[in-house]
């Protein structure tokens, strides 16, 4: 199963204190100042260990190489990265009007904090598990959605 995670507001806090997050390990914290939500690394490693592909799907303009290296510094190998530029290039061929369209990239499940993306998932027929920034059990919610989708 191909599972994509949004960054901002989902696994990266938009403001200090939005949700618990851990700094990057030394010496990487000098390069990657952004922090990842608690349980992000554990969850992504677990999903990869179960044979799933872990992707990032962000509307930001962060360079793909930066995102890949950032996650590698956390010992998470990403199967793919979609940023705003990649998504824009795919949009004409996808023939959709959603802000994100995971099927254009073969993504089976999108993890996102946006109610709008969740609504677009229902409207355009793609699976979204919406995680609230205040939900301390967000990783369990993702695990349950994966179990439900795979029947395991």
How would you sum up this structure, described in words?
- By secondary structure, the chain is α/β, with parallel strands linked by helices.
- The chain has a single domain, classed as 3-Layer(aba) Sandwich (Rossmann fold).
- It is 36% helix and 15% strand.
- The chain contains five helices and seven strands.
- The chain is globular, with a radius of gyration of 15 Å.
- The protein starts with a strand and ends with a helix.
- The model has no long low-confidence stretch (mean pLDDT 90).
List keywords for this structure.
globular, 15% strand, Rossmann fold, alpha/beta, five-stranded parallel β-sheet
**If you consult CATH, what is the topology?**
Rossmann fold
CATH class: Alpha Beta
Radius of gyration: 15 Å
Low-pLDDT sequence parts: none
Major β-sheet, in short? 5 strands, parallel
